[in-house]
Amino acid sequence: MTDIIIITGGSKGIGKALVEKYAQENYNVYSLARSIVNLENTTQISVDLSNLKETENSFLMLFDEFKKMQISSITLINNAGRLGTVSSLENIESEDIAKTIQLNTTTPLILSSLFIKHTKSLACKKQIISISSGAARSAYQGWSIYCTSKAAIDMMTKTIALEQSELKNGIKCMAIYPGVVDTNMQTQIRNTSENDFKNVDRFKELKTNNELYTSEFVANQIFKIDNEDLLENGDIIDIRNF
Ligand SMILES: NC(=O)c1ccc[n+]([C@@H]2O[C@H](COP(=O)([O-])OP(=O)(O)OC[C@H]3O[C@@H](n4cnc5c(N)ncnc54)[C@H](OP(=O)(O)O)[C@@H]3O)[C@@H](O)[C@H]2O)c1
Q: Whole-angstrom Cα distance, residue 178 to residue 239?
Protein backbone atom coordinates (compact mmCIF):
# COMPACT_ATOMS: atom_id res chain seq x y z
CA MET A 1 0.00 0.00 0.00
CA THR A 2 1.26 3.48 -0.79
CA ASP A 3 0.48 7.07 0.22
CA ILE A 4 0.60 9.27 -2.88
CA ILE A 5 1.09 13.03 -2.87
CA ILE A 6 1.17 15.24 -5.96
CA ILE A 7 2.68 18.69 -5.38
CA THR A 8 2.66 21.42 -8.01
CA GLY A 9 5.64 23.76 -7.99
CA GLY A 10 7.82 21.32 -6.06
CA SER A 11 11.09 22.69 -7.43
CA LYS A 12 11.46 25.80 -5.25
CA GLY A 13 10.24 27.55 -2.11
CA ILE A 14 7.31 26.12 -0.15
CA GLY A 15 6.65 23.38 -2.73
CA LYS A 16 10.22 22.09 -2.56
CA ALA A 17 10.13 21.98 1.24
CA LEU A 18 6.82 20.08 1.07
CA VAL A 19 8.31 17.58 -1.40
CA GLU A 20 11.29 17.01 0.91
CA LYS A 21 9.15 16.63 4.04
CA TYR A 22 6.67 14.16 2.53
CA ALA A 23 9.50 12.17 0.88
CA GLN A 24 11.24 11.88 4.28
CA GLU A 25 7.97 10.56 5.68
CA ASN A 26 7.99 7.82 3.02
CA TYR A 27 5.21 9.16 0.84
CA ASN A 28 5.27 8.42 -2.87
CA VAL A 29 5.93 12.01 -4.01
CA TYR A 30 5.27 13.48 -7.48
CA SER A 31 6.35 17.04 -8.23
CA LEU A 32 5.14 19.03 -11.24
CA ALA A 33 7.19 22.12 -12.15
CA ARG A 34 9.10 23.51 -15.13
CA SER A 35 12.56 22.87 -13.70
CA ILE A 36 14.02 19.58 -12.54
CA VAL A 37 16.11 19.99 -9.39
CA ASN A 38 18.00 17.82 -6.94
CA LEU A 39 15.32 16.00 -4.92
CA GLU A 40 15.61 12.58 -3.35
CA ASN A 41 12.92 9.90 -3.55
CA THR A 42 10.68 12.06 -5.74
CA THR A 43 9.32 11.64 -9.25
CA GLN A 44 9.71 14.99 -10.99
CA ILE A 45 7.67 15.86 -14.06
CA SER A 46 8.77 18.84 -16.11
CA VAL A 47 5.65 20.72 -17.18
CA ASP A 48 4.61 24.30 -17.79
CA LEU A 49 1.46 24.49 -15.70
CA SER A 50 0.36 27.64 -17.47
CA ASN A 51 -0.06 25.54 -20.62
CA LEU A 52 -3.44 23.81 -20.55
CA LYS A 53 -2.69 20.83 -22.81
CA GLU A 54 0.70 20.10 -21.26
CA THR A 55 -0.88 20.27 -17.81
CA GLU A 56 -3.74 17.95 -18.68
CA ASN A 57 -1.51 15.40 -20.44
CA SER A 58 1.06 15.12 -17.67
CA PHE A 59 -1.61 14.78 -15.01
CA LEU A 60 -3.44 12.05 -16.94
CA MET A 61 -0.15 10.17 -17.43
CA LEU A 62 0.26 10.14 -13.66
CA PHE A 63 -3.17 8.63 -13.15
CA ASP A 64 -2.33 5.92 -15.68
CA GLU A 65 0.64 5.01 -13.50
CA PHE A 66 -1.48 5.05 -10.32
CA LYS A 67 -3.81 2.40 -11.79
CA LYS A 68 -1.17 -0.24 -11.06
CA MET A 69 -0.80 0.76 -7.41
CA GLN A 70 -2.50 -0.20 -4.15
CA ILE A 71 -3.29 3.25 -2.78
CA SER A 72 -3.91 3.95 0.91
CA SER A 73 -4.21 7.74 0.54
CA ILE A 74 -3.91 10.28 -2.25
CA THR A 75 -3.45 14.05 -1.94
CA LEU A 76 -3.11 16.88 -4.44
CA ILE A 77 -1.37 20.04 -3.22
CA ASN A 78 -2.06 23.00 -5.49
CA ASN A 79 1.01 25.08 -4.66
CA ALA A 80 2.57 26.45 -7.88
CA GLY A 81 1.89 30.14 -8.19
CA ARG A 82 3.17 33.46 -9.45
CA LEU A 83 2.75 37.02 -8.24
CA GLY A 84 2.74 38.43 -11.77
CA THR A 85 3.48 42.08 -12.41
CA VAL A 86 2.93 44.21 -9.32
CA SER A 87 1.38 47.54 -10.25
CA SER A 88 -2.00 49.24 -10.53
CA LEU A 89 -4.24 47.24 -12.84
CA GLU A 90 -4.08 49.66 -15.78
CA ASN A 91 -0.29 49.14 -15.97
CA ILE A 92 -0.42 45.34 -16.29
CA GLU A 93 -0.13 43.73 -19.75
CA SER A 94 -3.02 41.50 -20.83
CA GLU A 95 -0.60 38.62 -21.40
CA ASP A 96 0.62 38.84 -17.81
CA ILE A 97 -2.92 38.99 -16.42
CA ALA A 98 -3.88 35.86 -18.37
CA LYS A 99 -0.73 33.97 -17.35
CA THR A 100 -1.22 34.62 -13.63
CA ILE A 101 -4.89 33.66 -13.65
CA GLN A 102 -4.06 30.55 -15.69
CA LEU A 103 -1.37 29.33 -13.27
CA ASN A 104 -2.92 30.44 -9.97
CA THR A 105 -6.60 29.72 -10.64
CA THR A 106 -7.39 27.86 -13.87
CA THR A 107 -4.73 25.17 -13.38
CA PRO A 108 -5.84 24.32 -9.80
CA LEU A 109 -9.44 24.10 -11.07
CA ILE A 110 -8.40 21.77 -13.91
CA LEU A 111 -6.16 19.60 -11.72
CA SER A 112 -8.83 19.40 -9.02
CA SER A 113 -11.44 18.45 -11.59
CA LEU A 114 -9.24 15.67 -13.03
CA PHE A 115 -8.23 14.54 -9.53
CA ILE A 116 -11.86 14.18 -8.41
CA LYS A 117 -12.80 12.37 -11.63
CA HIS A 118 -9.91 9.90 -11.58
CA THR A 119 -10.08 9.04 -7.87
CA LYS A 120 -13.84 8.47 -7.86
CA SER A 121 -13.57 4.71 -7.51
CA LEU A 122 -11.00 4.88 -4.68
CA ALA A 123 -12.36 4.40 -1.17
CA CYS A 124 -9.18 5.60 0.57
CA LYS A 125 -8.34 8.99 2.16
CA LYS A 126 -8.50 11.58 -0.65
CA GLN A 127 -7.77 15.28 -0.31
CA ILE A 128 -7.04 18.48 -2.16
CA ILE A 129 -5.03 21.12 -0.29
CA SER A 130 -4.48 24.47 -1.99
CA ILE A 131 -1.90 27.02 -0.92
CA SER A 132 -3.90 30.21 -0.84
CA SER A 133 -2.90 33.52 0.74
CA GLY A 134 -4.05 36.23 3.11
CA ALA A 135 -4.26 38.22 -0.15
CA ALA A 136 -7.47 36.28 -0.85
CA ARG A 137 -9.12 38.35 1.88
CA SER A 138 -7.08 41.56 2.09
CA ALA A 139 -6.73 43.83 -0.93
CA TYR A 140 -3.21 45.19 -1.51
CA GLN A 141 -2.67 48.08 -3.90
CA GLY A 142 -0.69 46.70 -6.87
CA TRP A 143 -1.76 43.07 -6.35
CA SER A 144 -5.14 43.05 -8.14
CA ILE A 145 -4.45 39.92 -10.19
CA TYR A 146 -2.81 37.96 -7.38
CA CYS A 147 -5.55 38.85 -4.85
CA THR A 148 -8.24 37.91 -7.38
CA SER A 149 -6.56 34.61 -8.20
CA LYS A 150 -6.31 33.60 -4.52
CA ALA A 151 -9.87 34.72 -3.64
CA ALA A 152 -10.98 32.37 -6.43
CA ILE A 153 -8.99 29.52 -4.85
CA ASP A 154 -10.87 30.02 -1.59
CA MET A 155 -14.20 29.88 -3.41
CA MET A 156 -13.05 26.81 -5.37
CA THR A 157 -12.24 25.17 -2.01
CA LYS A 158 -15.65 25.93 -0.53
CA THR A 159 -17.51 24.76 -3.61
CA ILE A 160 -15.61 21.48 -4.00
CA ALA A 161 -16.10 20.83 -0.27
CA LEU A 162 -19.83 21.35 -0.64
CA GLU A 163 -20.10 19.07 -3.67
CA GLN A 164 -17.96 16.33 -2.14
CA SER A 165 -19.67 16.40 1.27
CA GLU A 166 -22.74 14.79 -0.33
CA LEU A 167 -20.79 11.77 -1.61
CA LYS A 168 -19.99 8.45 0.05
CA ASN A 169 -16.27 8.41 -0.87
CA GLY A 170 -15.94 12.17 -1.07
CA ILE A 171 -12.72 14.15 -1.16
CA LYS A 172 -11.72 16.58 1.59
CA CYS A 173 -10.82 19.97 0.16
CA MET A 174 -8.99 22.63 2.19
CA ALA A 175 -6.96 25.81 1.68
CA ILE A 176 -4.02 27.06 3.74
CA TYR A 177 -2.55 30.56 4.07
CA PRO A 178 1.17 29.97 4.71
CA GLY A 179 2.02 33.39 6.21
CA VAL A 180 4.91 35.47 4.84
CA VAL A 181 7.54 32.97 3.69
CA ASP A 182 11.16 33.56 2.70
CA THR A 183 11.04 32.47 -0.98
CA ASN A 184 11.70 33.95 -4.43
CA MET A 185 8.19 35.37 -4.35
CA GLN A 186 9.11 37.57 -1.37
CA THR A 187 12.34 38.66 -3.11
CA GLN A 188 10.20 39.79 -6.05
CA ILE A 189 7.88 41.69 -3.67
CA ARG A 190 10.80 43.49 -1.98
CA ASN A 191 12.25 44.42 -5.39
CA THR A 192 9.08 46.24 -6.44
CA SER A 193 9.24 50.04 -6.58
CA GLU A 194 7.18 52.07 -4.14
CA ASN A 195 5.35 53.58 -7.12
CA ASP A 196 4.00 50.17 -8.02
CA PHE A 197 3.51 48.86 -4.47
CA LYS A 198 2.93 51.34 -1.63
CA ASN A 199 3.40 48.68 1.11
CA VAL A 200 6.83 47.56 -0.08
CA ASP A 201 8.60 48.94 3.02
CA ARG A 202 6.56 46.74 5.34
CA PHE A 203 7.78 43.63 3.47
CA LYS A 204 11.38 44.90 3.53
CA GLU A 205 11.07 45.40 7.30
CA LEU A 206 9.77 41.86 7.81
CA LYS A 207 12.91 40.55 6.10
CA THR A 208 15.27 42.88 8.01
CA ASN A 209 13.64 41.90 11.31
CA ASN A 210 13.90 38.20 10.45
CA GLU A 211 10.14 37.80 10.69
CA LEU A 212 9.62 35.61 7.62
CA TYR A 213 8.79 31.94 8.00
CA THR A 214 11.15 29.49 6.38
CA SER A 215 9.69 27.14 3.76
CA GLU A 216 10.79 24.22 5.97
CA PHE A 217 8.77 25.52 8.93
CA VAL A 218 5.69 25.92 6.72
CA ALA A 219 6.12 22.43 5.24
CA ASN A 220 6.46 20.89 8.71
CA GLN A 221 3.31 22.68 9.88
CA ILE A 222 1.34 21.55 6.82
CA PHE A 223 2.54 17.97 7.29
CA LYS A 224 1.50 18.06 10.97
CA ILE A 225 -1.93 19.51 10.15
CA ASP A 226 -2.42 16.84 7.48
CA ASN A 227 -0.98 13.91 9.42
CA GLU A 228 -2.99 14.69 12.56
CA ASP A 229 -6.15 15.26 10.49
CA LEU A 230 -6.67 18.69 12.04
CA LEU A 231 -8.73 20.07 9.15
CA GLU A 232 -12.37 19.60 8.23
CA ASN A 233 -13.63 19.52 4.67
CA GLY A 234 -13.98 23.13 3.44
CA ASP A 235 -11.64 24.67 6.04
CA ILE A 236 -9.60 27.69 4.97
CA ILE A 237 -6.95 28.28 7.61
CA ASP A 238 -4.00 30.52 8.35
CA ILE A 239 -0.86 28.70 9.49
CA ARG A 240 -0.27 31.52 11.98
CA ASN A 241 -3.26 30.24 13.99
CA PHE A 242 -1.83 26.74 14.48
N1 LIG B 1 6.07 33.20 -0.18
C2 LIG B 1 5.03 33.74 0.44
O3 LIG B 1 5.18 34.63 1.31
C4 LIG B 1 3.64 33.27 0.14
C5 LIG B 1 2.59 33.80 0.89
C6 LIG B 1 1.30 33.38 0.64
C7 LIG B 1 1.07 32.45 -0.34
N8 LIG B 1 2.11 31.93 -1.07
C9 LIG B 1 1.80 30.93 -2.10
O10 LIG B 1 2.63 29.80 -1.91
C11 LIG B 1 2.81 29.12 -3.17
C12 LIG B 1 4.30 28.85 -3.40
O13 LIG B 1 4.95 30.10 -3.45
P14 LIG B 1 6.51 30.30 -3.15
O15 LIG B 1 6.61 31.49 -2.31
O16 LIG B 1 7.11 29.01 -2.71
O17 LIG B 1 7.01 30.70 -4.61
P18 LIG B 1 8.34 30.37 -5.43
O19 LIG B 1 9.49 30.16 -4.52
O20 LIG B 1 8.38 31.43 -6.45
O21 LIG B 1 8.00 28.97 -6.11
C22 LIG B 1 7.01 28.86 -7.09
C23 LIG B 1 6.93 27.44 -7.58
O24 LIG B 1 5.93 27.40 -8.62
C25 LIG B 1 6.51 26.81 -9.78
N26 LIG B 1 5.99 27.42 -11.00
C27 LIG B 1 5.93 28.74 -11.30
N28 LIG B 1 5.46 28.90 -12.55
C29 LIG B 1 5.22 27.64 -13.03
C30 LIG B 1 4.74 27.14 -14.27
N31 LIG B 1 4.39 27.96 -15.27
N32 LIG B 1 4.63 25.80 -14.43
C33 LIG B 1 5.00 24.96 -13.43
N34 LIG B 1 5.45 25.37 -12.24
C35 LIG B 1 5.56 26.70 -12.04
C36 LIG B 1 8.00 27.08 -9.67
O37 LIG B 1 8.72 26.06 -10.37
P38 LIG B 1 9.51 26.30 -11.77
O39 LIG B 1 10.02 27.70 -11.75
O40 LIG B 1 10.55 25.24 -11.74
O41 LIG B 1 8.47 26.07 -12.80
C42 LIG B 1 8.23 26.95 -8.18
O43 LIG B 1 8.47 25.61 -7.82
C44 LIG B 1 2.19 30.03 -4.22
O45 LIG B 1 0.90 29.56 -4.57
C46 LIG B 1 2.09 31.38 -3.51
O47 LIG B 1 1.07 32.17 -4.05
C48 LIG B 1 3.40 32.33 -0.85
A: 5
